[in-house]
Write a structure and sequence with these properties.
heterodimer, A: alpha/beta, 2,3-Dihydroxybiphenyl 1,2-Dioxygenase, domain 1, Signal recognition particle alu RNA binding heterodimer, srp9/1, 4 helices, B: 2,3-Dihydroxybiphenyl 1,2-Dioxygenase, domain 1
Chain lengths: 179, 177
């Protein structure tokens, strides 16, 4: 059966294109791959060779984007820390910085109040939702210990993610379903 | 320099969790990786759970209507795009289906059961300057569609970045105009 193969891009309405473009390119590090006349729409990608655009910024004075969150992975824990400080230096505020088990996520608002997350996938399997405050200025060793000390947790879903499936206890419901 | 590595996931609020979860799993084929079940307030979905724990999050909140300009999902083949196009078009709870040839991709845009603007698209592997919007008939043969893509004229570009394999479809603009 045909199905979608992944999330490709999301479009965001913007009021002030120069401010938003500066933020998404200079602070988050996305690349502009194309732009329309007068920058009515600007296409951005973190992986231009693989995906033409992952974010489309589209000018609109009467539409306001309402996404619960738009979330970007980073490659390393150190990248997360560096980006966290870069966002703080822009004068933007973080709503939450949490250990999800599957990822460390830092949630903040972009210059037009869209809720963004930058996250480092830990490669650990852990049932969601889960969130525990962490301090990104702790050392890598301290943060690794936070992950190591996570207790196994019951999952209600039948599907597994990641390598460390020992962190997800099989529930009776799953056994009954023959999973 | 540190930068984000990709787009990972998008979350939207929904009014009717059951209807929306069923649409995204049964029609688009996403997998519920966590949450879900009766009375769920939050549902995590992924097209490829082994790669990404979730790519799409549905969060119950009848008071906050989501409003993304668009949320776009890839498909693996032109055949998959055509099959999804017909499956979505046949749904009474989806509307405003529009098929667009972007050169770099052929996209089917529609409104989901809660009127979110969703796109499913097949990447053609061709480089083509955006924005480009043209009509195309998905009920043609694959050969006819590929021929239509092949006959698109090269376009001048103002950006130095190239996408896809067919770089001849993008002409560098003359420096300084």
């Amino acid at each position: 059966m045909a199905k979608v193969s992944g999330l490709g891009h999301v479009g965001v309405y913007v009021r002030d294109m120069p401010i938003m473009l500066d933020f998404y390119t200079r602070v988050l590090g996305l690349t502009i791959t194309d732009r329309s006349a007068g920058d009515r729409a600007v296409f951005l990608s973190a992986r231009p060779a693989e995906e033409h655009h992952e974010i489309a910024l589209v000018q609109s004075q009467d539409q306001k984007t309402a996404c619960g969150q738009i979330s970007f992975p980073v490659r390393t824990l150190n990248d997360l820390r560096v980006l966290y400080h870069r966002v703080l230096d822009e004068g933007l505020r973080f709503d939450r910085i949490v250990n999800h088990g599957v990822a460390f996520g830092a949630y903040f608002r972009d210059p037009e109040d869209n809720r963004l997350e930058i996250y480092w996938p830990t490669d650990l399997d852990y049932p969601q939702p889960f969130g525990q405050p962490i301090d990104l200025d702790a050392s890598d060793e301290q943060l690794q210990r936070v992950l190591d000390e996570l207790p196994p947790r019951e999952g209600t879903g039948q599907h597994y993610y990641g390598r460390n499936v020992g962190k997800r206890i099989t529930t009776g419901a799953q056994e009954a379903a023959g999973v | 320099m540190s930068s984000v590595a990709a787009l990972g996931h998008v979350g939207i609020s929904v009014a009717d969790m059951d209807t929306m979860t069923r649409f995204y799993t049964e029609v688009l084929g996403l997998t519920v990786t966590d949450g879900g079940g009766p009375g769920a307030r939050i549902v995590f979905l992924s097209a490829d759970p082994a790669r990404e724990q979730h790519e799409f999050v549905l969060s119950a909140n009848p008071e906050l209507h989501a409003n993304a300009q668009q949320i776009s999902f890839t498909v693996a083949s032109l055949d998959d795009l055509r099959e999804l196009y017909h499956a979505i078009k046949a749904r009474p709870d989806c509307s405003d289906m529009r098929v667009t040839n972007h050169g770099i991709a052929i996209g089917c845009y529609f409104l989901d059961p809660e009127k979110n603007r969703i796109e499913v698209y097949w990447s053609t592997g061709m480089d083509y300057v955006q924005p480009a919007v043209g009509p195309i008939d998905l009920d043609q043969s694959n050969a006819a569609i590929l021929a239509a893509l092949g006959s698109m004229p090269p376009r001048p570009s103002v950006t130095p970045h190239l996408y896809g394999e067919d770089q001849g479809k993008r002409l560098p603009a003359a420096a300084g105009g």
